[in-house]
Write a structure and sequence with these properties.
Radius of gyration of chain A: 21 Å
Number of domains of chain B: 1
Distance between the termini of chain B: 45 Å
Helix content of chain A: over 70%
Strand content of chain A: under 5%
Largest sheet of chain A: 2 strands, antiparallel
Distance between the termini of chain A: 10 Å
Oligomer: heterodimer
Radius of gyration of chain B: 19 Å
Strand content of chain B: under 5%
Shape of chain B: globular
Number of strands of chain B: 2
Shape of chain A: globular
Largest interface: A-B, 40 and 41 residues
Strand order of the largest sheet of chain B: 1-2
Number of helices of chain A: 14
Largest sheet of chain B: 2 strands, antiparallel
Number of strands of chain A: 4
Number of domains of chain A: 3
Chain lengths: 335, 286
């Protein structure tokens, strides 16, 4: 059913929801009771949305990567070190960081493309752990175990017509920056996935043999998916690095990579919105229960168990079956 | 000479404990086709349960290790019966459940014992003198002896007994095994219990050599996966070789290039081996 066949009410309703969500996100920093900590959590959520959505792009092509956080780390460290050592503007180094991540990812994606299924997962796992160990051992460049500090933040940006935006003064500019990047990321990833390239990825994921028999180059498209996914991971990592001002190798080790996989699977891998929902639910709800202190991760675990046993399609699947239930109960005629 | 001997013994000790953990991981994978990412967390839980038995209940260390193996084996069987069996044939949900288990077990350890540095009481304290000038702590020797003994026992179990043959049958072809009257679920339960028990023993032994922390499972999980991948899925004999390789890399390299540097080398080696021989050193080509 396309928009033309629907009643005007439904179309208006859909755009209304989008408008309300957009307005809420845009006005968020100005709402009452929204403090710096709340904004910090929002920035964290946006970073993870970029990382998890880009991870899903890699999974769509049938490559179950378990080392995605390492690529965030490559972007973050590249950008931070360039801006610190060479004094370049963070705006430039963030792009260089993302580009560098893409190059590393494409090369390693080429090497790894001969491995399939769990062997691919394992090689990305080793790659992630090795990169993290490299960050820890190369003390002169990365600061080693104690972490990298002292690289510049984004600083002051002067936009003609608006005036100067001081990124150091508050978290609000960073929030808008991440919001813009998240929107950009989701748009690009969605367009690619719905294009011919995305179809080729899905074909390769279903059966590499059949896909290559109809002329889809498995190596080429898997490299492409890995490169595109890791570009956005590097972007998210680089931006987050300049936002937080401290980089520690432990935030890019195995467990962060696994958490990205958890967010994605829990949100529902078969839906584009899955990673977004997964990140929002799994980051926001434990934050609500922060007063439980060391018991707080239990909340995280319980949500996971609930989703695993009650919602086989993930949280996004719940949304869809809820929609079906709503249509069945209230709009019998419409179906 | 002294350093050399100690390094060799350390390598063997590390290798034997790595192999114990990896054996359980490989067993679950071949019998149930489940990548049990929670295996490292079970190993960590084994060490903590052992610490509990040893300090709170005052059991002698050897009994603490046995009891922690029993507790974790029962826990593993329950997990298989009530969780993994329900999620059977759904790879994503099984994986997710294993990850949820990591979160739960780590939090439980944090809450009960706390993140402070703890140490499992040693089975056999004191030093031993080998050939004049070389001294070794007895607990390392005893850890190695127990691990090797268990490895032999499990290998015999898998190769010689009826139960072992049933396990190998299920690993080869689940449906065919089921058609021949093997209770596949029972075998899976036993395999899970055995694997969790082995991990618990490894945790108890390692806990007396190094100190405990809640994240010790992560590193060990990566080690176990490395061993299994290098050896090739489904090759038990290969685990011995890959275990010795990784154990010696971990014992020797830190002397020359530091701990983190040796990890880089070890994982780079693992990547190269995987790229050259995708099914591992001893795995069958599929």
């Amino acid at each position: 059913m396309n928009d033309r066949e629907k009643g005007n009410g439904q179309v208006i309703g859909r755009y209304g929801v989008v408008a309300v969500v957009a307005a809420f996100l845009l006005l968020l920093p100005w709402l009452p009771k929204v403090g710096p900590y709340f904004l910090h959590v929002c920035i964290l959520i946006l970073t993870y949305i970029i990382a998890t959505s880009s991870l899903r792009t890699i999974y769509v092509s049938g490559q179950a990567s378990v080392g995605h956080a390492a690529f965030m780390g490559i972007g973050a460290y590249t950008s931070a070190i360039l801006s610190m050592r060479l004094g370049w503007s963070p705006w430039l180094t963030i792009l260089i960081g993302a580009a560098g991540t893409t190059i590393v990812a494409t090369l390693s994606g080429y090497l790894f493309s001969r491995l399939r299924a769990i062997y691919f997962s394992m090689v990305t796992l080793f790659f992630g752990v090795a990169v993290e160990a490299l960050m820890r051992s190369w003390v002169s460049l990365t600061g080693g175990r104690s972490g990298l500090v002292g690289f510049p933040g984004i600083g002051v940006l002067s936009v003609p017509g608006i005036g100067e935006i001081n990124f150091a003064a508050s978290k609000t500019p960073y929030y808008y920056l991440m919001l813009l990047l998240t929107f950009f990321t989701l748009l690009v990833l969605y367009r690619i996935e719905r294009s011919r390239t995305g179809m080729n990825w899905m074909a390769i994921a279903q059966s590499p043999l059949v896909a290559s028999s109809i002329g889809i180059s498995e190596t080429k498209f898997r490299m492409l998916a890995f490169g595109v996914g890791c570009f956005f991971a590097g972007l998210a990592g680089a931006c987050y690095g300049h936002y937080s001002g401290v980089l520690s190798s432990s935030s890019f080790s195995l467990m962060p990579s696994i958490y990205l996989v958890i967010y994605m699977l829990l949100g529902g891998m078969s839906h584009f919105a899955g990673p977004v929902i997964g990140v929002v639910v799994l980051v926001a709800i434990p934050e609500i229960f922060r007063s439980l202190k060391e018991y707080a991760p239990f909340v995280f675990g319980v949500i996971m168990l609930l989703v695993i046993f009650l919602m086989p399609q993930g949280l996004a699947g719940l949304m869809q079956s809820g929609k079906v239930w709503y249509e069945k109960t209230f709009r019998r005629g419409a179906l | 000479m002294e350093v050399l001997t100690q390094t060799i013994v350390n390598g063997i000790v590390l290798a034997s404990i790595y192999i114990l953990v990896a054996l359980g991981f490989a067993l679950i994978f071949s019998v149930m086709q489940v990548l049990n990412f929670a295996h490292g967390a079970i190993y960590m839980a084994g060490a903590y349960v052992c610490y509990f038995w040893g300090t709170t209940f005052g059991l002698p260390p050897w009994a603490a290790i046995v009891m922690s193996a029993v507790v974790l084996a029962v826990f593993g069987m329950l997990l298989e019966r009530f969780c993994f069996r329900i999620l059977e044939k759904d790879f994503n949900r099984t994986l997710m459940f294993a990850l949820a288990l990591i979160v739960m077990l780590q939090t439980a350890a944090d809450v009960t014992v706390g993140a402070y540095v703890k140490r499992v009481p040693s089975v056999l304290p004191g030093l031993i003198r080998i050939g004049g000038s070389i001294t070794m702590s007895k607990e390392r020797i005893i850890a190695c002896v127990i691990a090797v003994f268990l490895l032999l026992a499990v290998t015999l179990l898998i190769k010689k007994t009826l139960l072992g043959r049933q396990m190998r049958g299920v690993a080869q072809d689940r449906d065919a095994a089921s058609l021949h009257g093997i209770n596949v679920h029972r075998i899976a339960g036993i395999a899970f219990g055995l694997s969790a028990g082995l991990a618990a023993v490894a945790g108890g032994l390692m806990g007396s050599i190094i100190s405990l922390n809640t994240y010790m499972g992560d590193a060990m999980l990566v080690k176990a996966i490395t061993l299994v991948i290098i050896a090739g899925m489904g090759s038990l004999g290969g685990l011995l070789v890959s275990g010795l390789i990784v154990g010696f890399i971990d014992a020797v390299l830190p002397i020359f290039i530091g701990g983190a540097g040796s990890e880089v080398v070890a994982f780079a080696c693992a990547i190269v081996i995987l790229l050259i021989r995708p099914s591992g050193l001893f795995g069958q080509e599929t």
